[in-house]
Amino acid sequence: MANEKITIKMVSEKANVSKTTVSRYLNGKYEFMSAETKKRIEEVIEELEYRPNALAQGLKNNKTGLIGIVVSNIMIPEVAALVRGVNDYCIRKSFQVILVETDHKNISQQNQIQALIDRQVEGLILSSNQDEAFVKSLTEQKVKIVLADCTIEEGMIDTVIVDNEKATAEMIQRIYSEGFDRVAYFTPPLTTPSRKKKLALFLESSKIAVRNPEQLAFEIEETQAAFDACKESLNELLKKNQGYRLAILAENSELMFALIHVIYSLGLRIPEDVAIGGYDDLGWNKLYHHEMSVIEKPSYEIGSQAAELLVKRISKGKMQYKPKVIEVQPKIKMNGSTQVSDNSFDKIVIRMNQENQPYIKKNYRKQDD
User: Fold this and answer.
1) Which Pfam families would you find in this protein's record (predicted)?
2) What is the pLDDT of residues 195-205, one digit of tens each?
3) CATH number of this structure's domain 164-292, picked from the four choices 2.40.50.100, 3.40.630.40, 3.40.50.2300, 3.90.1530.10
4) Which is more confident, 156 or 305?
5) Does domain 61-157+301-329 have CATH number 3.30.390.30?
6) Which of 126, 299, 352, 360 could make an S-S bridge to 81, C-beta 3.0–4.6 Å?
């Protein structure tokens, strides 16, 4: 019967019992079932190689064992690490994960989330920026949700996020302690609470060194022209800060990647001409001449803790509970991209030519023989 679909009716007929009795056996309800009947059903199931429909059983019990996770771009290594953290925990707890990717599109996100709900997932982990009104509507539908590495209205929904406050202040302080005069900040559009908070942290932390840090903040559109936008903003930064040793902090890894290429395309060096650091360690930064200084996000831990929190909510079954916010601590990695040897030069002066392109004038210290 290898090619024949075995049904619960076929099992009941061969075992000479009702379908209800077979169903009770499959669900572990052996009350009022004789040992002989139980053994006969077991033998028939083994003989026919019957495999019960786990989804159908779950629907009857309102327990499908499915968890949905929504991400923006699975190609980003930190997102992949987060998903791995979710999946590893769910496997240990006998849950299956359904992954959907939305590419930052709100309509796509909402449609795919609704599709997950239609498939009777027991809970959702959202790791992409969401429309607050839509998320609120999900909670009104009694959908259990945990936000992972993204936020909406504080305290409204279970959330696992990175506590960047201390790390941002420490990194900026350490860059200035290396002898840099200005630290600029490049960020994508301020469309999410986390981006707004990072900018606020940068502005507050920069007050130790400059009076008007907002003049060192640049907002870059997330388009195919990001390279050109970075180049234009970097030229503006260089023009307004001639004679200063400059460093840049990028809000995310994709922006840091674009900035690195812009710096090299302008004939500048890292860190001798412009230093650079940012958030998230993607591994590829080791391919450059200098390994990048980063605030490393513990993405795997975020995913694992989000899954643990969601599974606990599912297990308790209650919908009314006080939302919990878990903050995980990032790790600062200061590397060669923000460190310049004091004995290599005295001062770097970046000038702008008539075409508003940077050129470099250096006063090197005389090296000892």
Assistant:
1) LacI, Peripla_BP_1
2) 898 999 999 99
3) 3.40.50.2300
4) 305
5) no
6) 299
